[in-house]
Amino acid sequence: MSQRRACEVLAVDRSSVRYRSVRSDDASLREAMKMMASERRRFGYRRIHVMLQRQGISMNLKKLRRLYRGLWRRDLIAEADAALIKARTLGPSVSRILPAQL
Q: What residues does the HTH-like domain cover (predicted)?
């Protein structure tokens, strides 16, 4: 089946099927952010932005925030802070409940 007919059947524009991203590879920026985030666990994206600028790596803050969110969703930050986040969400009220009360 031709691409034109397949796109007609699926009700999809051919231009969106043919689209190839031209976004540059951000592997080096992600690596620098990983290093900074692993050194300074408590730093957020704004502080990491300042630290990277001091190292001579400049980028748009919105782009850095997007990459930082990607790190958070992936393994680096999420694995290391999972226990801390769990403890914060459960809070001290859970520990006060006695097993007999359940």
A: 25-69
pTM over 0.90: no
Q: Among all chains, which residue has been given the structure tokens 């699926």? A: 10
Measured CA to CA, the distance from residue 68 to residue 36 in angstroms comes to 11
pLDDT level of residue 37 (50, 70, 90 thresholds): confident
Length of the chain, please? 102
CB 71 within 8 A of CB 34: yes
Side-chain-side CA neighbours of 55 within 13 Å: the count stands at 13
For residue range 39-73, list pLDDT tens digits in order. 877 888 889 899 899 989 888 899 888 888 887 76
Plot region of 74 (φ>0 → left; ψ -120 to 50 → alpha; else → beta) = beta
